[in-house]
Amino acid sequence: MEGKVSVAIKDTVATVSFFHPQSNSLPGELLRLLAKTLEETGQRSDVNVIILMSEGDKAFCAGASFDELVAIHDEATGDHFFSGFALVINAMRQCPKLIIGRVHNKAVGGGVGIAASVDFCFATSKSSVKLSELAVGIGPFVVGPAVQRKVGLSAMSQMAIDATQWQSALWAKEKGLFAEVHETVEEMDSAIEILANKLAKSNPEAMLDLKKIFWEGTENWNTLLFDRAKISGRLVLSDFTKNAINQFKGK
Fold first, then answer.
1. How many domains does the chain have?
2. Which residues lie below 8 Å from residue 20, measured CB to CB, with a gap of 6+?
3. pLDDT confidence of residue 67
4. Residues 90-126 pLDDT 10s
5. Within a domain: residue 122?
């Protein structure tokens, strides 16, 4: 696997970072490793808060790996791949610690779903967002519930339908996807450090009870997101999708 997931802990603040050389795209194996890492980090007694970020200075996350998508040749494989996004979202939803998101640059598809699944998301002015799935013949079925929960059905459907249109970081803040937008990475990191240190000193039990309230109404996601993965796993096999993905890869 080309990508990696790393964890660093300092003063009860855990930083979970992921990386893939192709614009931080997410192959299935990397998705499962990220989900497992979030689950394990959330259970640690020496961790009170988690920061989730990606490495590098280019895209925060380019979403699904196109190389892996075009290699899918049966529904079971497609279902398995898209279930990786379900595992990551559910790992964040069920994590007993509050998760701060650090979105330093553009987020596409599954990357928007990850940004929507943290509990408090910081971004920079470069952090445009796009749900590009329909443009390649599928749809934001797995990440859709997480995005809709944050921005509402109207804004989510706007992104899902106009699948080639970037929405600005300020638009995302206005809709509730981002809590704060900073002009520079340095300013964003300073703000993240301040909030993380505050939360590190807060009552863990109170934060857990708050998180449960924040996520009320999502108890069916252990089933819903995997049902949605089956839809994407079926659609990715179509000739339309194969041709569309190959055209995107050729650009």
1. 1
2. 2, 3, 26, 27, 30, 65
3. 85
4. 999 999 999 999 999 999 999 999 999 999 999 999 9
5. yes
**Is 34 contained in some domain?**
yes
Residue 122's domain is classified under what CATH number? 3.90.226.10
In a domain, 243, yes or no: no
* Residue 108 domain boundaries: 4-185
Q: Compute the distance between CA of residue 26 and CA of residue 66 in angstroms, rounded to an integer.
A: 9
pLDDT in tens, 67-91: 889 889 999 999 999 999 999 999 9
For β-strands 13-19 and 4-10, DSSP reports them as: antiparallel
What average pLDDT does this structure show over 8-12?
98
Q: What is the pLDDT of residues 11-38, one digit of tens each?
A: 999 999 999 999 999 999 999 999 999 9
Residue 221 inside a domain? The answer is no
CA 63 to chain centre: 8
- At 179-219, the pLDDT tens digits run 999 999 999 999 999 999 999 999 999 999 999 999 999 99
